[in-house]
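look at this:
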Amino acid sequence: MSRQHTVLIIKPGYSETFVPHVRAVCSLGDVLRTTPILHLFKDHHVTWLTDEAAVPLLQGNSRIDRLVTFGDLKVLEIEGERFDKVVNLEKVPELCGMADRIQAWKRYGFTLDPRTGKAAACEEAYESLVIRTHEDAQRLTRSWVELVYDMLGATWQGEGYLLGYQPKTSECYDIGFNVNVGTLCPLKAWPADCWDDLNARVAGKYRTSYQQCLQDLDGYMDWINSCRLLVTNDSLGLHLGLALGKQVLALFGPTTSSDLGHWDNLHIASSPTPCACRPCYATDCVLDETCMRGISPALIFEHVERILV
């Protein structure tokens, strides 16, 4: 009987794979966006090293044989093991160093450059993981998951997210308003009065709900699952909606939708504001009005009517 191949995936979400910065807060969206690679390792024994905050996204996933978090003593066991493949999608220097110390036949993702003490792309992954600048983002033609698949020597053919959590709710709302965004790019948020305007337009015709369970990831996923259509900013909720098979209407301004790829249940509404700096991914806007203000509630209402027909 042949030995089962082993793979270690390092993705706690401290650094978004294709964004230059590194931060101490877990990006749940980036963790979820990594799960399509599990389709490539369905015949492997998979160990996934992540942050405690991301456990609800991954726990119960049939493609993950061992889920380990930082602070768990099992991390020490991992460092002493040998894997067939190590996939490190983090740019944190300490994690790159740890990944390099683990014995493996093949490495993908990021390694530690001993000359600079910073993350560098592994040789096989260099073309895929060269971190895009603002100008690169404007010219981006391939989706996030396509680039990661390319890094692993594969071709993405539409494989979706693999969410471990099984929601406990059924649909009871026609529309969910996913209004919040993270602190990294607050400009992604559609203004509050626009949400209220949209709510007034759909009142009496559709059952609606504003975002719930902001401090409870399990409850948040249950809420998304209770919605037939999710109207959302560019945020974690967008990706969770796709993973849960919901119709998703996503609003884009300072960020780009081009890295999402094609999804049958995804509908895009981009700001028509003529702004040369988009996508800027900025925390502050130098203009009088943000580009998200350019997305009219009347236009979003038209989208909603078409989707829910």
In short: The longest helix spans residues 192-202. The domain at 6-151 is CATH 3.40.50 (Rossmann fold). The radius of gyration is 20 Å. The mean pLDDT is 87.
